Amino acid sequence: MNKQTVAxxxxxRSAEHDVSIVTAISSVIKxxxxxxxxxxxxxxxxKDGRWFAGEALGRIDLFRSGKIDEYxxxxxxxxLELGDGxxxxxxxxxxxxxxxxxxFPATHGTHGEDGxxxxxxxxxxxxxxxxxxxxxxxxxxxxxxxxxVEKAELxxxxxxxxxxxxxxxxxxxxxxxxxxxxxxxxxxxxxLGSSIGISRVANETELINxxxxxxxxxxxxxxxxxxxxxIEVTVPIxxxxxxxxxxxEQPLTNSEDFFDFNTKYIRQGGKKTxxxxxxxxxxxxxxxxxxxxxxxxxxxxxxxxxxxxLGCSGIARIDLLIDSKSKILYFNEVNPLPGSLYAHNWRAxxxxxIQLVEDLVEYxxxxxxxxxxxxxxxxxxxxxxx
Length: 386
Hints:
By secondary structure, the protein is of the alpha+beta class. The longest helix has 19 residues.
């Protein structure tokens, strides 16, 4: 029996390009290979948008050493053929054609996690891991996700949003609206993950500077109130129609801090934990979160409700904010492709890295089979009128 070919896509023209490489190689490619069930094909999308496919791209040393530039100089970019599925063509004296059975995107941020790759897989009519295109679009737009969650009657911090172009043309009306928000405020580019471009501000001068930073990354800007007496928790979830959470996790920060990119990935949470936390994809954290049983269960229920409201499937991570005094729990954001699949949390919940990727492939195949039962073509006599 021939093995299924699973193509793992990573990199891309994203601010989270490097994080994507680590997720793909450490948490997807290696575990898939260890199952011995699949033929695994790494597909690297360079920062300039060129695609390359080949087994050598599954080694972290190629990227850590900087030799990826030499590799790309020696190899022609991979071509895509859309027809009866998706075929990757590696040009050479004898072109190497590989038909993809399942796509496993590991592309964080723009031009990948935001639904763009999923649209390609939909057009190619192949199974793919993770949230589908509509859910990815909603989840990766912090403004749209908040609107959907509010419609589901789930609390979210008070916020305002605006288009970057409108602020550039005339900032005064927008600044006037923002006066209704209570400091401290968080300024965010709505389409980015990994806390890139996010600023915490305490006054209008800092606010204007933070807006300019966010505008550098996005065509929208989101400004929201900070939650007092903050406890931040995050809930990884897996599944399709019947999703289930892993362990409610508590990133460790001081009340005035937040996890920016440097804290998450470069300093790995810093040394503020006194050695009490565990290193994970979001720095140091407590697994499980140090909250009451009632809040813990409410966090699980809220996260699953958000997952369903946004139409997520496969895997996602829901970030929540808790006011420890009022006990109110707020939706913060959704990550439809958690860094490193949040494998450390699933491992603590009893799901190994190998089982995690196997389950995700099965969820992809299950969703694909169910969608094939729906009619998307409708026969009419419309053209006969012309």
